[in-house]
Specification:
By secondary structure, this protein is of the alpha/beta class. It has five helices and seven strands, in the order αβαββββαβαβα.
């Protein structure tokens, strides 16, 4: 299995990403996904929020979409950031492979999110896969700089406190 979590690979992905589709994005002011979206939005990245429970809301000037399929075909997505449980990953990867290729370069799963079979499928399609890491934390670690959005150096998870 390739090591997609080497610093050189992470640095390359984070440098080359200009548009992120965030599955599980939330407009809740204490949501970890909002911290990550705000961080990258503040650094010039376009964040396309996806959450069927938040359709009609707006996040960083972008309408929240119900699914990956709702991303307009002219919008090129570089990274898919997954803020969902591990068991949801296979369906998300399948939908991404169907709808976002060839622009998609990376599937990134947040802390606590892993699915080896889905990761292997994505890699077989030429994608970089990062599991159980936060792109915001990795960006701060690799590129440094002031942290004006979100929290610094703290693990942000898609899991609710207490495992609910």
């Amino acid at each position: 299995m390739p090591d997609d979590s080497k610093d050189s690979t992470l640095r390359h992905v984070l440098e080359e990403t200009s548009a992120i589709a965030m599955v599980g994005a939330s407009t809740n002011p204490v949501s970890p996904s909002l911290f990550v979206a705000t961080y990258f939005g503040g650094r010039g990245r376009r964040v396309i929020p996806i959450n069927p429970n938040r359709v009609g809301e707006v996040l960083l000037g972008e309408p929240v979409l119900a699914s990956i399929r709702d991303i307009p075909s002219h919008v090129r997505i570089d990274m898919l950031d997954v803020f969902r449980s591990s068991d949801a990953v296979p369906g998300i990867v399948d939908e991404a492979l169907e709808c976002l290729m060839p622009g998609l370069k990376c599937v990134w799963m947040q802390y606590g999110v892993r699915h080896e079979a889905a990761a292997e499928k994505a890699r077989a399609h030429g994608l970089i896969v990062v599991q159980d890491r936060c792109p915001k934390v990795e960006h701060m670690r690799l590129f440094g700089g002031p942290n004006l959005a979100g929290i610094g150096g703290v693990r942000v998870s898609s899991r609710r406190p207490g495992g609910r």
